[in-house]
Write a structure and sequence with these properties.
Blueprint lengths: L5 H7 L14 E9 L3 E8 L5 E8 L6 H17 L8 E6 L3 E7 L6 H8 L4 H20 L2 E2 L8 E3 L8 E3 L6 E2 L28 H16 L1
Antiparallel strand pairs: 1-2, 2-3, 3-5, 4-5, 6-9, 7-8
Helix pairs in contact: 4-5
Length: 223
């Protein structure tokens, strides 16, 4: 995909996706697929088509600061901005009711890359190269679209299915930000093991994603 300035791209896409109303009017929410610090992800089945998706539900009670709500809105905008890349989880819809915000996205039934690494123990050089290529492709695409993920790690890459050669998909853009060329950030975010070491106590720009990707590659190859 040809690189273009963040805000110019957004003008031609639906990055300012509108939040819809009652998620249960459109989807049947089922079993819990996973839980995080701010949200719970459940199976969502379309009432119209029967398509199986994933729905991340974030309680508004946990959004105690205006910044917290802004983070959720930005997560939706980032996912919408990046949707279409084969190695990024596709955003389907966003809903908001009195108690929760719901983000509906494609279902990746293969689980987290981290769990697959633990289960397998190691990868062949050829398979590891394919995984690394997918990770680097995601980082390059995000940066070309003016986005820094800021929390790249094996837990935030999902596998599309349970097959041995399933596609890798980046997810969890809750800490992501839009950036302009030359812009830098001095806030410390991400997961400790994967944080760009040079970014601690200094100003980090888009290169931080590459450093986190490198740590993810290390975990994939060195186990």
């Amino acid at each position: 995909m040809t690189a273009c300035p963040t805000y110019a791209c957004s003008a031609h896409r639906s990055a300012a996706r509108r939040f819809q109303g009652d998620v249960t009017a459109v989807y049947n929410l089922g079993k819990v697929l996973g839980k995080g610090q701010f949200g719970t992800t459940r199976l969502a089945v379309s009432k119209e088509t029967g398509e199986k998706l994933a729905c991340k539900t974030i309680s508004k009670r946990k959004l105690t600061k205006p910044l917290d709500r802004a983070d959720v809105q930005r997560e939706v905008k980032v996912m919408d901005h990046l949707t279409g890349h084969p190695n990024i989880v596709k955003l389907v819809a966003a809903f908001e009711d009195k108690r929760n915000v719901h983000i509906v996205m494609e279902l990746c039934s293969g689980g987290e890359l981290f769990d697959r690494i633990v289960t397998r123990g190691h990868y062949s050089e050829r398979h590891a190269a394919q995984i690394i290529r997918s990770i680097v492709t995601v980082v390059a695409h995000c940066h070309s679209m003016g986005v820094i993920h800021r929390d790249l790690k094996p837990e935030n890459f999902l596998l599309s299915d349970e097959g041995p050669m399933s596609d890798l998909k980046a997810t969890d853009f809750g800490l992501s930000v839009f950036f302009k060329p030359g812009e830098s950030f001095d806030d410390i975010v991400g997961s400790a093991y994967y944080v760009r070491a040079l970014g601690l106590g200094s100003r980090a720009g888009g290169a931080g994603g590459g450093m986190s990707a490198g740590a993810t590659v290390e975990v994939t190859v060195m186990r």
